[in-house]
Design a protein that fits this description.
The longest helix is centred in the first third of the chain and has 29 residues. The strands form 2 sheets. The protein has a 5-stranded mixed beta sheet with strand order 2-4-5-7-6, with helices on one face. It has a two-stranded antiparallel sheet with strand order 1-3. With 186 residues, it is α+β, with helices and mostly antiparallel strands. 51% of the residues lie in helices and 20% in strands. The chain has one domain: Heat Shock Protein 90, CATH 3.30.565. The chain is built from 5 helices and 7 strands; from the N terminus they run ααβαββαββαββ. The radius of gyration is 16 Å and the shape is globular. This is Sensor histidine kinase. Its EC number is 2.7.13.3. It is an enzyme of class 2 (transferase). Keywords: Kinase, Transferase.
Length: 186
């Protein structure tokens, strides 16, 4: 089980690194003035990934801060085509425990499969409850996307089951998609 978990965690880093180096490469050519700022933010984000690489869990507070930084990179890349809204009741603890980089992977999944643009941004709503981190978005399928192999969601499911003892849930109703990530109390 421990070896399987390490293999699942290692699948995350190359994927994240590859995507962001491609973004940085495009920015260097098209928007060199933005590329340096992007690189600074990317470096901070990747530091978080490296620091959490050996951790099985992290606080929800750390995960939200990390995801907020990640969205700032996406704002630069996609010209504000995607908006993040984080909702939680005051009494809901941000000390809950979750999987490192899980919220970032959820956001990446939304953007991979859904179209947003600056004139009509796609709202990604994150709702924090006592037991779940719910990521919800309107389904706006991209027309030129390759079929999904669901590697990211399957990876997240296996990690959640192995570490948190609960699986993720996906709900698709009408034109809405919701991914529910389990939280463990503080």
């Amino acid at each position: 089980m421990e070896n399987q978990l390490k293999i699942l965690q290692q699948q995350l880093d190359p994927h994240f690194l590859f995507n962001n180096l491609n973004i940085l490469s495009a920015l260097i050519i098209s928007k060199p003035e933005v590329a340096e700022d992007y690189l600074d933010t990317f470096t901070n984000i990747y530091r978080y990934i490296l620091d959490s690489h050996n951790l099985k869990t992290t606080s929800l507070e750390n995960e939200i801060a990390f995801a907020t930084d990640y969205m700032s990179l996406l704002d630069k890349r996609f010209s504000n085509a995607y908006k993040l809204e984080i909702l939680h009741k005051k009494e809901t603890s941000l000390k809950h425990i979750t999987l490192p980089c899980s919220l970032q992977l959820a956001l990446e999944n939304v953007i991979k499969h859904n179209q947003g643009d600056k004139d009509n941004p796609l709202l990604i709503r994150v709702n924090i409850t006592d037991h779940w981190l719910e990521i919800n978005n309107e389904i706006r399928s991209k027309t030129n996307t390759l079929p999904s192999n669901k590697l990211g969601l399957n990876n997240m499911r296996l990690r959640a089951e192995a570490i948190l003892g609960k699986s993720i849930e996906t709900i698709q109703e009408n034109d809405q998609f919701t991914l529910r990530l389990p939280l463990i109390g503080d």
